[in-house]
């Protein structure tokens, strides 16, 4: 039962990530606060766990 719960959570996160990727930045179908994030910069860090470094 625990494994099934964890699997469901992973699928939910994957669905949210793909939905986020499918939307344009101008009209997201969700708000950043739904992810517990206050601004797009934090949201970017959340979506890109391994961002490229500048310079």
From TrEMBL:
Chain intervals for the UniProt region annotation (Disordered): 1-20
Domain of life (superkingdom): Eukaryota
Residue ranges, compositional bias (Basic and acidic residues): 1-13
Name by which UniProt lists this protein: Uncharacterized protein
């Amino acid at each position: 039962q625990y494994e099934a719960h964890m699997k469901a959570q992973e699928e939910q996160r994957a669905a949210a990530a793909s939905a986020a990727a499918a939307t344009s930045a101008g009209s997201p179908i969700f708000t950043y606060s739904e992810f517990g994030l206050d601004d797009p910069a934090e949201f970017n860090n959340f979506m890109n766990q391994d961002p490229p470094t500048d310079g």
